[in-house]
Amino acid sequence: MLEGLCDYSLVTLGDLSLFIRVGLGLGLSLLAWRCARFTVLPILYPDDPQEYPYWIPVLGHLFSFFRNSNKLLARARVYCGNTREPFAINLAGGRIYVLTKASDVAEAYRNIETLSFNIFVQEMLKTAGSTPACVKTMYKPLLADKAGFPNPHSKPLATLARDMHIQQLYPGEHLDVLGRAFDRFFDDDLHGDTILRNYAYAQAAEDASVVLPLMAWCSDVFCRAGQDAYFGPLLEQIDPEMTEKFLIFDELSYQLQFQYPKWLSLKMQKAKDALVEDLMVYFDTPQGQRRGDAWFVKAMEDEMKALNLSTYDISVLMVTIYWGFLDAAYTLQDRELYRTLVEEIQPAFMNDQKTPDAQFLLKECTLLNAVWDETVRMSAFSASVRHITKDTKIGGKFLRKGSRLMIPYRQMHFDESIFGADAQAFRCDRFLKDKTLKRGSSWRPFGGGTTQCPGRFAAKQVVLSFTATLLKRFDVQIEGQQPFPEGQLGKPVLGIMASTSELRVRISPRET
Fold it and tell me: d(Cα 254, Cα 381) in Å, to the nearest integer?
């Protein structure tokens, strides 16, 4: 028996010794890899951007990025000397170069030869469900003399669509029509009884007041108003819950941007598929039976049908097109600011107008515009992405072919050398005291270059109109003592960041 125990002990000790040798070997291999990757390679390639080190090969910073992308990028920037030179992170084996200096970003925007946005969009469309034939057709150059929207430079429809969106969303006739459609919606919707009827979370209070969650309400209002202004009333008739499905999709749309596999994005894919089904019913309805839609919708539909795209492909593409809480929240925190804004917007409603004069809001309400500028600086959380098709030098560093380039605008918006030592704080007069901030290259809430968001004029006009109408009709106060909602920095988004909590407000009708 003792002999058996001795044999067993020897085997156990042998196994333990093997485990120690294997573990030691793996540990030494990992140390050797890390030393080669982050010590030796930078010496051999001093003109390449510094890479933020990580311990797990292949995965890199994947989990840290999706846990809190802003924190990861800030930590990497500081690790690399906080010089704002280009640096690199690694996501699932792919190297991503990051630009946070305004001059480097401007240089990247000018480079349309070796930095491609189209490759990124094509991959995203495929993830969204577009067929390969559809993507190929959308990027095939069209004839310069084709029928429909003018195309003198023979652009493919994927690129021409931006020109069409500019036609719709830049100041002019089409934006005026769209703006009036939004104003009509706000005029009909912003009444106490209507709010109680249309929004289940709204609660009636004394003196005809209504208590509601500000973020949820603004999201719903803008989503429903946008759907009505762009597509007319038919979509809501097809599916009264379509805006709810869109908000679910929008909350998770970063998974589409970063091309999550289906098994990791089931909820987003389900919401997206539901939107596609509704849009297929919409586009199967003859155009003559649709009313109240924006010029762009029928114009883009005609262009896609001319290329023989199926209703399914048209609907998938329109979902990507179908994509102002914090503005109000910051204002409510400062009651003096709130009172000043209420006084400033009054002349926009001259002659007992029910809806505001958009041009007065945009040109004469300087404080309201400054609040908008500071709000989008604080809350814009999007990033621009490019594929590097050839070794490219930016900011004195070589960015290697096959990698991606990312421009995270939030990192630029909190640059203390540009926006001051109080860049982390909301200051409503920041853009009033220094008018050069908007003209500089560090304020990029809507991106830049050839991919700058064409909807920036429409977005500002609509949000200012909603804010003015709300302040004109209601006294708005925070309900009780509540902490100010913090931004949801952990989740990458395509535009304005979400909030970690709600802000319940009481809106009371003003005496007329």
Answer: 11
Rounded to 10°, the helix 311-321/295-306 angle is: 140
Name the strand (E) or helix (H) holding 395: none
pLDDT digits (tens, 9 = 90+) for 336-347: 888 999 999 999
Helix (H) or strand (E) holding 137: helix 132-138
> CA 144 to CA 151: how far, in whole Å?
5
Q: How far is CA 229 from the centre of its chain?
A: 21
**CB burial string 489-499: b at 16+ within 10 A, e below:** bbbbbebbbbb
- Helix, strand, coil shares of the chain as percentages rounded to 5? 60, 10, 30
Give the span between the Cα atoms of 158 and 120, in whole angstroms. Answer: 12
Three-class SS of residue 247? Answer: helix
What mean pLDDT do residues 418-431 have? 92
Range 46-64 burial, b when 16+ CB lie within 10 A, else e: eebbbbbebeeeeebbbeb
Q: Which of 502, 114, 93 is nearest to 329 (CA)?
A: 502
Q: Collect all residues with Cβ–Cβ distance below 8 Å to 413 and sequence separation of at least 6.
A: 377, 378, 380, 419, 423, 442, 443, 444, 445
Residue 427: both structure tokens together: 């200051």
What are the residues whose beta carbons fall under 8 Å from the beta carbon of 326, sequence distance 6 or more?
Answer: 375, 378, 379, 496, 499
H/E segment holding residue 393? strand 392-394
Please write the tens of the pLDDT for every residue from 81-131: 999 999 999 988 889 999 999 999 999 999 989 999 888 888 888 888 899
- DSSP alpha helices (H): ranges in 307-408? 311-321, 325-333, 335-345, 358-364, 366-379
Place of tokens 């057709």: 137
Encoding tokens for residue 388?
Answer: 């590097």
Element spanning 50, H or E: strand 50-51
Q: Are the C-beta atoms of residues 49 and 86 closer than 8 Å to each other?
A: yes
Cα–Cα distance measured from residue 235 to residue 6, given in angstroms and rounded to the nearest whole number = 79
pTM for the structure as a whole: 0.86
Distance between CA atoms of 418 and 324, rounded to whole angstroms? 25
Beta strands 94-98 and 404-408: pairing type? Answer: parallel
Residue in 106, 39, 50, 48 with CA at minimum distance from that of residue 83? 50
Query: Are the beta carbons of 233 and 184 closer than 8 angstroms?
Result: no
Structure tokens at 383: 């990033």
Contact present, 164 and 300 (Cβ < 8 Å): yes
Mean pLDDT of the chain: 88
